Amino acid sequence: MAKIHLTPLSEVVDEVWGEVGTPERDAMEARLKEELQAYHIGEAIKAERLKQNLTQEELGAKVGVKKSQISKLESGKCVITLPTMSKVFKALGFGSAFLDFGTAGKVALW
Question: Quick check: 45 and 35 in contact, CB under 8 A?
Fold first, then answer.
């Protein structure tokens, strides 16, 4: 019977992305974190749009962008800027938003 050699996932990750603490690994982890945040924001936009029974085209018209841009935002395929986020959430009826710095206080985003 043939023996199977299994490589732990952590070794594969280290080989592909570099070891923990290296510039390559830090850059990859930062990129993944950014993409995950874009995905979560996109999911929030999509959920609220659907809750309000709006199409991507209708939301795009309210924001002043094309349907394709709303699609990219909702799928997390682009990183959303604060000005764009402000326009989208205002179009969805969120009049204000705050960034919470904990003990340092809150900052109004729009």
Answer: no
Give pLDDT tens digits for 44-61: 999 999 999 999 999 999
Could you read off the pLDDT of 1-27 as tens digits, one per residue?
788 989 999 999 899 889 999 999 999
Domain 18-108 has CATH 1.10.260.40: yes
pTM: 0.76
Residues 6+ apart with CB under 8 A from 71: 56
The CB density around residue 15, as the number of other CB atoms within 10 Å, is: 10
**Residue 37: helix, strand or coil by DSSP?**
helix
Q: How many other C-beta atoms can be found within 10 angstroms of the C-beta atom of residue 27?
A: 12
Domain map (residue ranges) of the chain: 18-108
